[in-house]
Write a structure and sequence with these properties.
By secondary structure, the chain is an alpha+beta fold. It has 6 helices and 18 strands. Strands 4, 5, 7 and 8 form a 4-stranded antiparallel sheet that branches. A 3-stranded antiparallel sheet has the order 1-10-11, with no helix packed on it. It has a 3-stranded antiparallel sheet with strand order 6-15-14, with no helix packed on it. α2 runs antiparallel to α3 (161-174) and α4 packs antiparallel against α5 (272-283). The longest helix has 23 residues, at 131-153. The protein is globular, with a radius of gyration of 19 Å.
């Protein structure tokens, strides 16, 4: 999941930006009110008897978003005078869903929202995975891919992103995995759903998807102590529902991403990924987001290296066999500056233009790269894959 918030000043100080990966401004010194549940005890339904944490039903007794009573829903923080950039507005959220703690290995932040491990001080210091760790990452990557494919098949007009979140949550638990976004720095949901102008970190809610929407579903699964992270775009209503600009945006985003994947091999500089992406998208008349980046991943959700998706000279180190990380460019149809919603998570384009993103967890091999979250034999083929010339 989840792009890291990147600060150039942080890089200058040689502190890895991924130390604040996927951290809302709340965690960086801005005082805001946390999301909270309605505390009327008499209105709160009985939860599944499985031991666990969260505020919703577990996979043993799931409740769909359409069935939730109105007084169970959470209204996200907002302000009356906030100027939204596009047509998407925050909806009501269901409570955090339960994870059965006696069945699932939990990441270190699951109970209190606070990750305990920090990346190395210098951004070019990158962990090399051992063979046993790589096998676990293959398993978590496969799990994330299966869950993403399952969620993508449910994208259709009328479904809510909260319902997609329920499907993701239950599919993760069924596979013995923890949905990594859940409670990461207090993120309230089990996946991110970013619709139209939302760049990243969209919170699933009761808004129904509409024909012609483009939506990114970002999945991370924590299985046997390791994270697998991937995301993909979907068009609500399928290819026929996409307008010409949306089709070009999706094709360009996919193609620049594939070009970047093809560059990965031992000895290359991480910083050079950004130029490959930016050069391709600017030729097509689009822009690349500079405020969020890809990241190292493993037993820790976000760590070194930082993967910038634009031309840069940052000292991010050299690629070597055994490194695992994500490439996840966020490409915009107009400007790439972002606007943070009052919920301190949802980042949209500042001008309301649409944004697209793809992501894989990658393993550098002795002679190239392996996509640990790559498509499997049952994965659907999207039109941008079919039409790609890269």
């Amino acid at each position: 999941m989840m792009a890291s918030l990147y600060s150039k000043a942080t890089a200058v100080l040689l502190l890895a930006a991924s130390a604040t990966a996927f951290v809302p401004p709340t965690s960086r010194g801005v005082s805001v009110e946390p999301l909270c549940m309605n505390k009327k005890k008499k209105s709160r339904p009985k939860v599944n008897s499985n031991k666990g944490f969260g505020g919703g039903s577990s996979s043993g007794g799931s409740t769909t978003s359409s069935a939730l009573e109105s007084d169970m829903l959470i209204r996200p923080k907002t302000t009356s005078n906030f100027q939204y950039a596009g047509s998407i507005r925050p909806g009501l959220q269901s409570p955090k869903r339960i994870v059965p703690t006696e069945k699932i290995i939990l990441p270190d932040y699951a109970l209190d929202g606070l990750p305990k491990n920090r990346p190395a001080l210098f951004p070019w210091v990158i962990e090399t995975k051992k063979p046993a760790e790589i096998e676990k990452m293959r398993a978590s990557g496969r799990c994330a891919r299966e869950v993403l494919d399952l969620a993508g098949r449910e994208v259709r007009p009328g479904i809510t992103t909260d319902e997609i979140d329920r499907i993701v949550h239950e599919a993760s638990i069924t596979r013995g995995a923890y949905p990594s976004p859940l409670n990461y720095h207090n993120f309230p949901k089990s996946c991110c759903t970013s619709v139209n102008e939302v760049i990243c970190h969209g919170i699933p809610d009761d808004r129904q998807l509409q024909e012609g929407d483009i939506v990114n579903i970002d999945i991370t699964c924590y299985l046997d102590g390791y994270h697998g992270d991937c995301s993909e775009m979907f068009v609500v209503g399928g290819e026929a529902a996409a307008d010409p600009v949306a089709k070009r945006l999706l094709q360009t985003t996919y193609d620049c991403w594939v070009k970047a994947l093809n560059f990965v091999k031992p000895g290359n500089d991480y910083k050079d990924i950004g130029a490959i992406i930016e050069d391709h998208v600017t030729e097509q008349g689009f822009t690349t987001v500079k405020s969020f980046c890809g990241h190292g991943i493993g037993s820790v959700f976000h760590t070194n290296p930082n993967i910038l998706h634009y031309r840069n000279s940052e000292p991010a180190g050299k690629m070597a066999a055994g490194h695992t990380f994500t490439i996840e460019p966020m490409i915009c149809e107009n400007g790439a500056n972002y606007l943070m919603w009052p919920d301190d998570w949802t980042a949209t384009t500042k001008d309301g233009g649409r944004s697209a993103q793809f992501e894989h967890t990658l393993l550098i091999t002795p002679d190239g790269v392996e996509a640990l979250t790559g498509k499997i034999e049952t994965s659907p083929v999207q039109f941008w894959e079919r039409d790609s010339n890269v």
